Amino acid sequence: MIAVLGIKRIFVLAALLLLNAFLAAGLYLYFIPEIQVKERELRGLRGTVSTLRTDINRMQVEFEQLEDQKEEFEKLVRRGFFKDQSRRQAEKMFNVIQKNSGVSKAIASVKSGSIEDNPEAQKAEHKILRSPVEIRLEAFDDVNIFHYLFLAENYFPGHLSVEKISLKREADVTGTVLRAIANGKNPSLVGAQVELMWRTMIPEASVINGGGK
Known about the structure:
By secondary structure, the chain is α+β, with helices and mostly antiparallel strands. It has helices at about 1-5, 5-80, 85-100, 120-125, 140-155, 175-180, 205-210; strands at about 105-110, 115, 125-140, 160-170, 190-205.
């Protein structure tokens, strides 16, 4: 084979093979660090993408919570939670609630209000005004009494919460009661004594000037 190719050609081929080997080794030594750098960059990019996804998910949750808080805030505004307490308005509202609840008698008394400390309200330069409310109810059935309380909690201006309720049967079902029912009357068979708390949030200036009317 040497005789066919010749010594010089063999040396040239050997030199070319050796040169190719050096080039391959050089390229390998050059590209391996580059590949490692790119892999690190890729891992970094993946980490960045993962962080961005987490941030986007968090922002979406916060946005949904903000929307819920906005709806709750608007609901409180409509309910008059950020207005001063008006005794005259309260009296009118209690009369409306009585007519729509089915109770036969309702005597409501709004006591003097006091300021309730609330850090969140203080941040907005507001105060929580709370006024105890006592109501004496009489009805044919306790369903009417609970209907009254439902209407009061959901439609009374501001925030009204039931603190205590005491139910008592005022009369037994007798022949006289049955005849009254047959004649279309609803005699009072159940009585209730209810204690509620009326809360609104008012500006600090209103506290200085005297809240409640």
